[in-house]
Amino acid sequence: MTANPASLSFEHISFAYSQGRPVVRDVCLSVRPGEIVVLVGPSGCGKSTLLRLVAGLLFPTEGRLLIDDADTGTLPPEKRQVGWVPQSYALFEHLSVRDNIAFGLRMRGAAKREIAQRVGEMLELCRITELADRHVRQLSGGQRQRVAIARALAVSPRVLLLDEPLAALDPQLRTAIRADLEALLRASGVTTLFVTHDQAEAMAVADRVAVLREGRVEQFGTPQMLWRSPANAFVAEFFGGATVLPAERISEFYVRIAPGLEAPTASPVHTARCQVALRQSDLEIVPQNGTAESLAQFTVKGSEFSGDAFKVTGEVAGAGVVTLLHDQPVVTGQTYPVRIRAGRALSVVGE
Amino acid sequence: MQTEPMTTALPLARARLHTAKAPADPMMSIGRSFTLFAVILCLAPIPLAIAVATTANWPLGFWAEGFTLRWLSEGWQAVQPYALFSLLTALIVLAVDLAIGLPASWVIARHSFPGRQVLTALINVPLAVPGIAIALSLILAYPLARPSGLLLVVGQVVYTLPFLVATLAPALAQPDLIEREAVAQTLGASAIQRFFFVTLPSIRSAMLAALILVFTLSMGEFNVSFFLFTPLNKTLPVELYSAYITGRVEVAAAITLIFLAFVVPAAIAIERLGGSKIGQA
């Protein structure tokens, strides 16, 4: 409707500042037209740099960047038709909302009528029509975000780049604004690269997620795929919020984590030893009624109340430190028998 | 029933009196009186100059032989050509400063290159060098340029340029501004469009402050100008000096007032534009 979505691919893209370590290393990704791809990773993983490379604010030291199969890696930003929304939104503070949105079209010398019509469409799409004549200094964080996105979409970008679009907002508002933002991106149909350090945000918004660490793509796939079969311990821990523990194969779909702690797996295990991802909700404390001697022992190190349950951290003898959810208060220092909740199958983590 | 409000009101009033007295810090009141004294000391010459300039015969005292506007009118007639010359000089200095200082500020703010520190230091050197030294070295280096008044302009440019750069460079180095320019670029704005539609509006107040600062500095500059002027190229402060040395004190006071009329409005404008921004390097 409002965009001309393009495909985007990174072919062995690397980037380093003139002197120093590479910030982006051998990144290969391909994004389909209209797809929302989230780049997620801890700070310093190179995700914002990737956006700047696509915007043309930086140029790759190696590799090719293709937009709609055309090599774009050497074009200057003003020739790329790529929308970039930095974390600060970088609104033009001296202009009104309307003039901010019209900026790109004016710079391209569009006709007045065309500008007015396009700005009207953008105001409507982003549901900020009533703010059109406000000064941008008078807007709230969420409103500023919408103006920044409207301004980027007004020039019909082939790709939209969002750098932590929710980070500047109040935590209480973030979830609601996130849903609005996703609806807006879907409605515009634009190919989007979305950067965040928050895996919950990534899961909620993405068609596909690329998990980055130290400039490399650790895994690229749908959120479900990353959750169910993490490629390595980093993905399982960072994206899946799991604790990765070594395990011993018992049968194709059954492993032992520690003496007395055995679990089914979600995918087949082929090697004698493997790693599994243990999530907070996978483990439970067994009510003590005498039958628990053969079960693994969990020594409580601390717990915090999180509303629905207590988040209990402790050590499973022979396995390591894990966190579980329990509906009763527990005593720090005391030992409880634990087991895998019925019906749970653990993700096997790739090497 | 009747006495009750009295009894509650009284301690309350006493308490209020007490709290009002409490913050009377002796250091505070000493500081306050000292500041007041300093302000009076600094500003007293202005009403005095007004009194002198409007007294018919000052050596005999305040408004001796009556109030007159004669000295102001004589003073204006004496300095008028020099005032206009000063104005013209200031405008030329302004243009030259901008032509050199804006690109220089840009380079200092936006590029890191070997020797950037040296360039910044070099631009700031004249701040530490007395005006007399600047003027004498210019006379020694370019004696032929002096009669045309060119040296006067050069001297004032050397003297005022550090102030312009020190005001503009920090404004141009703002990370927010750089990011806004980058967004404008992704929206299709060319380098010239970015400069005029994003950069310039964003640094508007710093730019105005810098220009007014250079203008006032140039109008009031004496050290350099005193050594570089020629009978044909004489600025207002230099003429003010000769009026004081050679003429009646009343005329000198009148010229002082005329001079202030040129400079004070500009100084007020700088203050309004956020004078605190100036010189944050």
Rough outline of chain A:
elongated
Low-confidence stretches of chain B: 1-13, 276-281
Kindly name the structural category of chain A.
alpha+beta
- What is the assembly state of the chains in this entry? heterodimer
Could you tell me the mean pLDDT of chain B?
84
Number of helices of chain B: 13
Q: How would you sum up the major sheet of chain B?
A: none
Explain this structure.
The complex is a heterodimer of chains A (351) and B (281). The mean pLDDT of chain A is 90. In chain A, strand 4 and strand 5 form a beta hairpin. The longest helix of chain A is centred in the middle third of the chain and has 18 residues, at 171-188. Chain A starts with 7 loop residues before the first strand and ends with a strand. In chain A, 24% of the residues lie in helices and 34% in strands. Chain A has 351 residues and is of the alpha+beta class. Chain B is mostly helical and 281 residues long. Chain B folds into 2 domains: 3-60, no CATH class; 72-277, MetI-like fold. The model of chain B is unreliable at 1-13 and 276-281 (pLDDT under 50). The A-B interface holds A 55-57, 76-78, 80-86, 88, 90-94, 103-104, 107-108, 151-152, 155 and B 176, 179-180, 182-190, 193, 197-198, 201-202, 204.
Short synopsis of the structure:
The complex is a heterodimer of chains A (351) and B (281). By secondary structure, chain A is an alpha+beta fold.
